[in-house]
Amino acid sequence: MQSRELTVYLIDDDPSVRDALGLLLGVRGYRTAVFAGGEDFVKAWQPEWAGCVLIDIRMPGMDGLELQQKLTDMNCHLPVIVITGHGNVESARQAFKARAVDFLEKPLDHARLISAIDEALKRESSVREDIQRREAATVLLQNLTAREREVMELVVAGSHNREIAQALGISVRTVEVHKSRLMTKLGVDNVADMVRLSMAHQPAPMMQEVATTLAASPAL
After folding, report:
1. Omega cis (within 30) before 60
2. Domains 3-129 and 143-216 alike in fold
3. pLDDT tens per residue, the chain (220 residues)?
4. CATH superfamily assigned to domain 3-129
5. CATH code that applies to domain 143-216
6. Contact (Cβ atoms closer than 8 angstroms) between residue 23 and residue 46
């Protein structure tokens, strides 16, 4: 996913700031959506939205730090850039603790702002691409039979054909047939690619566990 296909969601109660930043980003080719406050963004937010959020820290009603927390509560993980005309160390600390990409003080340095937005969109693209890989892997794995899935799990765990045969009570030749069929279904032509596809389907802790197991195992 290209960063310019994502949206910069600009949230600021000052219409002159919204207009100026909207113009700046629009001229530079960014897609933007503007909101006058955190409440407006929360009401409009859709789970499929992708991009990053540019938040003013001081706004009437829900301020920027409260909005950051609200986004977390909503399971909205869009990268956040905080901007403020009244910056202080404590506000910056809270923003970064809530995983803000950057904390920028007004008047904004346009070069630094663009750099922060590009970094935020880069992170978002990486997350979206990972989600797409997981979804694609899930679809492929659904085509496997129960036995093929058992064989794949043992292969990914680092077991050799003889060990798999013994564990499942089948012949080595049958293991080889199952491996060939499941690799065809998955569209891979080697064990390493099969392992990567399986890991793409797993949540992060499981991926780390599999990687550790493989690193400690003899070559397949």
Report:
1. no
2. no
3. 445 579 999 999 999 999 999 999 999 999 999 999 999 999 999 999 999 999 988 889 888 889 988 998 998 889 999 888 765 555 666 665 557 788 888 888 999 999 999 999 998 988 877 777 777 878 888 888 999 999 998 988 889 999 999 999 999 999 999 999 988 988 888 888 888 888 766 544 433 443 343 334 443 3
4. Response regulator (3.40.50.2300)
5. 1.10.10.10
6. no
Contacts with 39 (C-beta within 8 Å, 6 or more apart), sequence order: 61, 62
Which has the closest alpha carbon to 79: 48, 51, 118? Answer: 51
In the chain, where the domains are located: 3-129, 143-216
Q: CA-to-CA distance for 118 and 116, rounded, in angstroms?
A: 5
> What dihedral do alpha carbons 27, 32, 33, 34 form, nearest 10°?
-50
By residue count, the chain amounts to 220
| Residue 99 φ/ψ region, left for φ over 0, alpha for ψ in the -120 to 50 degree band, beta for the rest | left
Give alpha helix (H) positions in the chain: 15-27, 38-44, 64-73, 89-97, 110-141, 146-156, 161-168, 172-186, 191-201, 204-216
